[in-house]
Amino acid sequence: xxxxxxxxxxxxxxxTKFAALAVELVGVVVALYTVVRAVVGAIKKDKKMRLxxxxxxxxxxxxxxxxxxxxxxxxxxxxxxxxxxxxxxLRAAMAILIxxxxxxxxxxxxxxxxxxxxxxxxxASAKKDEGKKDEEPLTAPAETAAEEPQKAEYPKNKxxxxxxxxxxxxxxx
Length: 173
Fold this sequence. Notes:
Elements: H1 2-43, H2 49-71, H3 78-134, H4 158-172
C-alpha cells in the first residue's frame, strides 16, 4: 500500500513541477511580448507606452507568482520554503508598486486625453465661428415671429366648451 502512495505522490509532484514550469513559461512569454511591444511603442512615440509596459509587467509578474506558489507544493526543506516565501513577498511588493504605477499613469492619461479633447473641441468651435462670421446671409428669413400664423386655442375641457357654445347660441337666438 505504501508503494502505491509513493507512486501517486511522485506523479503528483511531477505534475506540479510541470505545471509550475508551464505557468512560468507563460510568464516569460508575456514579459517578452511586453518588452517587444514597449520597444515598438517607443519607436512610434506612443503616449501610452509606459502604461502598457506596466500592465504587461504586472501580468507577467502574476504568472511568476503563481509558479512560485506551485513550487511550495514540492518543496521538501524549510530552507526551500523560506526562500520561496521571500521570493513571493518580494514579487507581491513589486506587484503592489506596479499596480500603483498603473493607477497613476491611467489618471495622467485620462487628464491628458480630456485636455486634448477640450483643445480639439475649442479649435473646432473657433473654426466654426470663423466660418459663420465670414458668411453673409443671402436672403432674409422666410417668416418672422409677427408673420407666423396664429394657432387656434382649443379648450382642454370639451364638455365645458360644448356647454359654452350652447349658451352662446341660445343668447343669440
